[in-house]
Structure formats: structure tokens, C-alpha cells
Write a structure and sequence with these properties.
The chain has a single domain, classed as Double Stranded RNA Binding Domain. With 142 residues, it is an alpha+beta fold. The chain contains 4 helices and 4 strands. It has helices spanning 4-8, 42-63, 86-99, 103-129; strands at 14-19, 24-28, 36-39, 136-138. The chain has a 4-stranded antiparallel sheet with strand order 3-2-1-4, with helices on one face. Helix 3 (86-99) crosses helix 4.
Length: 142
């Protein structure tokens, strides 16, 4: 049986938008009905949304609700092939050996960390530029 910790760590899609009338930023998780939070800044809205998501999961677990898992795009096979220069391949191989992991696992870790850092920054940069516009969607969440 999956516990609350399992669901809290899943990357649910989130949508963020700015409401000009209320002067608030909103972040919601559309796959978790009613899971929405606000904040006076984009970072505060996201921080509040993560807290609300965790509370939502706890409540759902306590109530015995079925908690949906994040959807996966139908066209995402999970396979990527990339050609890299020999020098980069050598550096990756050396680092993977140091870490005691495969090159594939090392690359996956680097990609995941980089995407996590850049996604929130990029999203909120767009959000600040487009204040008052329609919602902007983000496929990865915390």
C-alpha cells in the first residue's frame, strides 16, 4: 500500500496565474481536485501550494479517498538518445565511476536536478512578465 510520503513526492502538474483584481498569485494542482493556494509573491504562492498539496494528500489518506497519480504524456516513451563529444563522454564516465553509478543514472540525475531548478525560475519569470494574463501551465511540480 502506498503511503502519504509516496504521494507527496510525486511531481504533479501545477498551474500558476496572477489575479490582477485580488493582487494575488495562485498555484493549483488540477489532478488533485480543490488543491489550490495563493500568495502575494510567486514564490510564496508556490510555497503555500506545496504545503496545501501535502495537507490534501494527508486528508485524502485519512478519508480513504483514491489519490490519483500524475498523468504521463502519451507521447513520452522515456527514451532519449543523445550524441556527445568524446571529451564529455569521458568526463561523464569518470564521474559515474566516482559516484558508483551508471552513466545513464548520472545523466538522469543531472537532468532531473537541472530541470527542477530551471523550471520554477523560468515559470515565474514568464509569470512576472505576463501579469494578469491567462494561466501558464507547468508540467513538473514539487
Amino acid at each position: 500500500m502506498k503511503d502519504a510520503f509516496y504521494y507527496k513526492k510525486l511531481n504533479y502538474k501545477w498551474i500558476g496565474y496572477y489575479d490582477e483584481a485580488d493582487k494575488l498569485y495562485f498555484v493549483e494542482f488540477p489532478e488533485l481536485p480543490g488543491c489550490i493556494a495563493d500568495g502575494k509573491t510567486p514564490s510564496k504562492a508556490l510555497q503555500n501550494a506545496i504545503s496545501v498539496k501535502n495537507d490534501w494528500v494527508e486528508t485524502a489518506m485519512d478519508a480513504g479517498w483514491i489519490i490519483p497519480e500524475p498523468g504521463v504524456a502519451a507521447d513520452a516513451s522515456g527514451r532519449v538518445t543523445a550524441r556527445v563529444p568524446k571529451t564529455v563522454h569521458k568526463k561523464l564516465a569518470d564521474r559515474a565511476k566516482e559516484e558508483g553509478v551508471s552513466i545513464n543514472q548520472l545523466i538522469l540525475t543531472y537532468l532531473s536536478e537541472g530541470l527542477e531548478r530551471s523550471s520554477a525560475r523560468h515559470y515565474f519569470e514568464k509569470l512576472l512578465i505576463k501579469k494578469g494574463s491567462k494561466s501558464i501551465q507547468h508540467a513538473g511540480a514539487r
